Amino acid sequence: MTLAEYRRKRGEPVLSEEELHAGDSHEGHPSALEYTQIGLFLAVVTAIEVALYYIDLDHTLLVVILMVLSAVKFSAVVLWFMHLKFDSRLFSTLFVGGLALATTVFVVVIAVMGGGLA
Amino acid sequence: MAAHAGTGHLETSTGLDNKKLLMWLFLGSDCLFFGSFIAAFLLYRDRSLEVCRDLLALDPTNTASCVFASDTTINVSGQTFMFEGLWDIPFTSVSAFVLLMSSVSMVLALAAIQRGNIRNMQVWLLTTALLGTLFVAGQAYEFTEFYHAGLHLDTNLTGTTFFVLTGFHGAHVTIGILILMSIFVYSLRGGIQQKHSLNIELAGLYWHFVDIVWIVIFTLIYLIQP
Question: What is this model's ipTM?
Answer without folding.
Answer: 0.88
